[in-house]
Design goal:
77% helix; transmembrane helix; MFS_trans_sf; 0% strand; 14 helices; Growth Hormone, Chain: A; membrane; single chain
Length: 401
């Protein structure tokens, strides 16, 4: 029998944390792109900005996940909030220097990484087996809500039609980071299983990587997430090329996030209807068609339609890989499993934007969208490795406690 869903204090705090962290991230990241363009940075440099966001995970993801498995999620949430405060202060008071903006982006990436690993591990460690798709659907719904609210900061008053009020946005994000710190302080870690003290990082990582299909599934997830990063970074550049106002860019980002949020409300039902594998593959194919179309001379109304399609499609992929990996991991290794997923995502976010950033110098932002769409077609093949949902059972304490 399916457990009746209740809304205890810890769950509400985790969902609130997910909203605020994504609000900050999706407000700051396009603003950082605008800030770089405003000080004379090239479009090719935007690829470096995207990579700078991902770099911290290449070094911190696995150790952070291992620490979470040993001492709990709360310390990761607190450290993430502090890193976000530093990022906002650097961006706001860095004097508009590209090097400082890159450093702020790295702190933003660090804060985001530590926050989401803590969130995902907490959800995974407090959810019953067989409920992962639904629970991660709710969790990623909250994340998508924050991703919807974040781009609205671009519409704050004080900017120009082409450039939003970047310093004001950074200051608002700094204030929100303080709120995030307070929320983090109120979240208690899940219970530590005794096995966690005996699990070593490298052997556990090797065991996870030997799981049939896991590497291909990680590759699919990294390509999808890199496409979202490229969308965030190069939409302002595309708008700049076509004379589209910043408030329209805000609307496009909000539409994408709204449809991602909408798709996650029905994730459990869609998985039961189509199966994880088919849903993963066809959603990636649909997102590929949408991004390729962004490279065409489409009017603003058409771009809004395409943003909705892209948002709905990519919105299904992230929670599917989360829930599948959570089911594969054993008690005491779920933080490591989630950090492995994030590390592979960040590797894609580091390599792919840097490669496509060089393409932007020759083809402009439209070429980046077309190339990203073609890349997603390869991700659809990788997504075929994702396993189907398992039956009911228990793993860890219920989330409703």
């Amino acid at each position: 029998m399916t457990e009746r869903v209740r809304w205890p204090r810890r769950l509400l705090l985790v969902l609130a944390h997910a909203v605020v962290i994504q609000l900050i991230t999706f407000g700051m990241r396009p603003t950082l792109s605008y800030a770089v363009l405003d000080v004379g940075g090239s479009q090719a440099l935007l690829g470096v900005v995207v990579a700078a966001f991902a770099v911290p995970a290449l070094f911190l993801a696995l150790p952070a996940g291992h620490v979470i498995d040993r001492i709990g999620e709360r310390i990761s949430l607190l450290a993430g909030a502090v890193a976000l405060i530093v990022a906002a202060l650097l961006a706001a008071f860095g004097g508009g220097q590209v090097a400082v903006l890159l450093l702020a982006t790295m702190f933003l990436g660090m804060g985001h990484l530590l926050s989401v690993i803590g969130e995902q591990a907490l959800v995974a460690n407090t959810t019953s087996r067989g409920q992962f798709d639904s629970k991660f659907g709710y969790f990623t719904f909250a994340s998508a809500l924050g991703q919807t609210l974040g781009p609205l900061l671009l519409a704050l008053p004080g900017g120009t039609p082409e450039i939003p009020p970047v310093r004001l946005i950074f200051l608002v994000c700094g204030a929100l980071s303080v709120v995030l710190l307070a929320i983090s302080a109120g979240i208690h870690s899940s219970a530590r299983p005794a096995v966690a003290e005996r699990v070593r990082m490298l052997p556990a990582t090797v065991t996870l990587l030997r799981t049939p299909g896991l590497i291909r599934a990680l590759l699919a997830g990294s390509i999808v997430l890199a496409s979202v990063d490229l969308f965030l970074a190069y939409l302002p550049a595309l708008a700049h090329e076509r004379g589209i106002a910043a408030i329209t860019v805000s609307a496009l980002l909000v539409v994408r996030s709204l449809f991602s949020m909408f798709s996650r409300l029905f994730l459990g039902a869609m998985v039961r209807l189509l199966g994880r594998r088919a849903l993963m593959v066809w959603s990636i194919v649909l997102s590929a068609f949408a991004l390729v179309s962004f490279g065409l001379p489409v009017p603003v109304a058409g771009l809004l339609f395409l943003a909705g399609i892209y948002g709905f499609a990519v919105g299904t992929c992230q929670p599917i890989t989360m829930s599948w990996i959570a089911e594969l991991a054993t008690a005491g290794t779920r933080g490591l499993a989630m950090s492995l997923r994030l590390a592979s995502n960040r590797l894609g976010q580091t390599l792919l934007p840097s490669l496509l950033g060089t393409l932007a110098a020759a083809t402009g932002a439209a070429g980046v969208f077309v190339a990203t769409g073609m890349m997603l077609f390869g991700g659809a093949w990788s997504g075929a490795a994702v396993g189907e949902a398992e039956g009911e059972g228990t793993a860890g304490e219920p989330l409703s406690r």
